[in-house]
Amino acid sequence: MNPTWYVYICDRQGKLYTGITTNVDHRMTQHHARLLYSEPHPDRHSAARREREIKGWRCEKKLAVIQCLLSVYPERSEGSHAGGTKFVRGSGLRLTFGVAAR
Length: 102
Description:
By secondary structure, the chain is an alpha+beta fold. Helix content is about 35%, strand content about 30%. The termini are far apart.
């Protein structure tokens, strides 16, 4: 069985970082980062394709998408990434109309 791959966006010392992994918790520990968003993919190829797409976005778009998802799915603000998308509040970034403020 192939592992599930995840695309993630994290807050790493006040900067957004996007990457892929099969173990989100371990990767956040490696980066000393706080997870803001993750989404599952069935294989590395599809995760890498989505990573490239997200990396092409401006910071404001990434933050706007995260804020929008948090407003639509507030119950997921402290959930597990396993099997679905995870959004985490309390990253140290204030998300206001798609603009990051410290």
